[in-house]
Amino acid sequence: MESSAILIVDDSHDDLDTYRRLLAAAPGIAHMETAESGQEALDLFTKQEFDCVLLDYNLPGTNGVEILRRILDEKPHCPVVMLTGGGSEEVAVAAMKIGAADYLSKDTLSRELLTRVINRAIEKKTLERKLLTQHEEQEVFLRVLVHDVRVPLRHASIISQMLKDDLGPDLSNEVSAHLDKLGATIGSMKGLIDTLNNYALAEGEVSFGLTSLDRVVEKSVTTSANMIQERGAIVNVSPLPPVYGHAPQLQQVFQNLIANGIKFSEAAAPQVDITVHDRNDAHTIIEVRDNGIGIPEGKLADIFEPFTRLWSRDRYAGSGLGLTICRKVIRRHKGAIWCQSVEGKGTRFFVKLMSMDAPEDRDAPASQTG
Ligand code: ADP
């Protein structure tokens, strides 16, 4: 176990003495500083590095939760253990919500408990930091990949078209077929890169607010116009209410659902109907129903997992990421997505979002960045 530097914030001299005594001979505690007020703690905190902060809730002139907030503004992953009086569960809950690593009742202190809680808090925050770093690295990797692969793909596409144009009438049927295949392969690689780009976008920082679903779905339909025309599909959209959301991401969701409804269909005229399934003050559930091939009962949950595809690529093209992106986006909207299906008859996707009334809804959730 590594040695840790601890900052203890408490205005009671007796309590500070107790902590000192308990931690003096504790294994793994190398250094201890104390502060008797929130301001003193913040001053110390900006000057020195601490591995863990023990923070009393009852501080003169302010409360521990406010100091906790300011400490975490400064260093978001600092392990802070809130020290509470007996029976103050509400304080503990508030502290944990803001980002305290743990809390400890002053009534049950012992050397063993104190060191265990400190070490656990340090481990927890170290792990959180590692996970975040990994996540950020993955995001950057994905963005670089998407960007760097797009450029050579565009060149490959132009060159294959130039070859076809240059060879013109001299082109044998065999070479022409090869070039068509090359074009199709480049096309599907472009599609995959677009999907990966959407996946990366679903992770990015966006702001949420009043969003017109009418407009979102209209754009999704417009973007799918080629596919709709090629398959002779019918897409019916009922009037939809506004919701709390981020329009470009929701557009991506409905685009994926419409495309799947058309793609996974053997009907002469694939049909997708988009309607309000349920709505109250709190939530709005939108249904996207198709008359396609359906999904076996046992696979309904699997299809939202990355790279899950129920059919071979030769039969139905795709990356298996579309619904994963939908789920990611909808989760970020604090909503839900699920589906019901009857094989051979069709599938119903349900998208649950937070309701919001236009235009002057006073009780709407505050705008949030995700
Ligand atoms: P992709 O469409 O790229 O294959 P998705 O993540 O969008 O990937 O969907 C995962 C799988 O779920 C699809 O490959 C398909 O087998 C099944 N699926 C999705 N939507 C439908 C649908 N509307 N009807 C039937 N099967 C579907």
Description:
The protein is an alpha/beta fold and 370 residues long. It is built from ten helices and 14 strands. The strands form three sheets. Strands 8, 9, 10, 11, 12, 13 and 14 form a seven-stranded mixed sheet that branches. Strand 11 (271-279) and strand 12 (283-290) form a beta hairpin. The longest helix has 57 residues, at 111-167. The chain is elongated. Residues 361-369 have low confidence and may be disordered. Bound molecules: adenosine-5'-diphosphate. Adenosine-5'-diphosphate is lined by residues 256, 260-261, 264, 290, 292-295, 303, 308-311, 318-324, 347.
Distance between the termini: 36 Å
Q: Count of DSSP helices?
A: 10
Number of strands: 14
Q: Indicate the low-confidence ranges by residue numbers.
A: 361-369
Largest sheet, strands/sense/barrel: 7 strands, mixed
| Percent in helix | 40-55%
Sum up the overall morphology in one term: elongated
* Radius of gyration of CA atoms, rounded to a whole number: 28 Å
Q: What ligands can be seen in this structure?
A: adenosine-5'-diphosphate
Strand content: 15-25%
- Rounded mean pLDDT is 87
**Which class best fits the helix and strand makeup?**
alpha/beta
Helices and strands, in order, run as: EHEHEEEHEHEHHEHHEEHEEHEE
Question: What's the layout of helices and strands?
Answer:
Elements: E1 4-9, H1 13-24, E2 29-35, H2 38-47, E3 52-56, E4 58-59, E5 62-63, H3 64-74, E6 80-84, H4 89-98, E7 102-105, H5 111-167, H6 173-203, E8 209-212, H7 213-223, H8 225-231, E9 234-237, E10 242-245, H9 247-263, E11 271-279, E12 283-290, H10 322-332, E13 336-342, E14 346-355
Parallel strand pairs: 1-2, 1-3, 3-6, 6-7, 9-11
Antiparallel strand pairs: 4-5, 8-10, 10-14, 11-12, 12-14, 13-14
Helix pairs in contact: 2-3, 5-6, 6-10, 7-9, 9-10
The structure holds adenosine-5'-diphosphate.
Adenosine-5'-diphosphate binds near residues 294, 322 and 324.
